[in-house]
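U., I forgot to send this yesterday:
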Amino acid sequence: MYTAKGTLQPAQAGFETYLPLVRRTAHRMIGRLPANVEMDDLIQAGVMGLMEAMERYEDGHGAQFETFALQRVRGAMLDELRGTDWVPRSVRKNQREIAEAVRALEHKLHRAPTDSEIARHLDVSLAEYHAMLVDVRGAQLVYTDDYETDDDEGHYLDRHMAPDERADPAAQLADRRFREALVKAIEHLPEREQYVMSMYYEHDMNLKEIAAVLGVTESRVCQLHSQAVARLRSRLRAY
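Result:
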């Protein structure tokens, strides 16, 4: 990577140009993670992903370099999170139980269950349920188990980064169906949860800003977000 004089090789000359991409990705990711996750660790992993992207990228790969690099950077950060096992087992357990409760109640009631109904189903108080929602929020960035398999197929990004997805009608169809299912699932969320998801993901607002708009506490926004994610995962299990 470096010459004998200590300078970057020509192939790496643009390395520093893409460092802001690593930092931006880390900043976006850290806001959805528990406090014990260090920003520096994410950035370090992202830099390694960027270096790998620069080594592996080839013209005609089917994507612009920045798009390719972003996927590698995010993948490296997710691998770092998986390796450090930052989500306690109790949080994963709560995550599964909330999703199961939402799915069971939606099937029974034919509508979105309320906080109180979910709490009763879980046999906990409303305050305890809200505390569970706050705890699981940090684990909802991504379920990294979904990104790996046990059959040695390799990294998720390698398996799903086709040279040119436009040449793969099946992939296009699957992606379109998932997007349509996701839009439909979001439309079935309770109105306040729809607002939270829209402000958080579409408008890139933080919890404090959303809380100010809705006139609630940041903790309540966190609970609404976690509950919305649980509902969406319940509806999109097939995907």
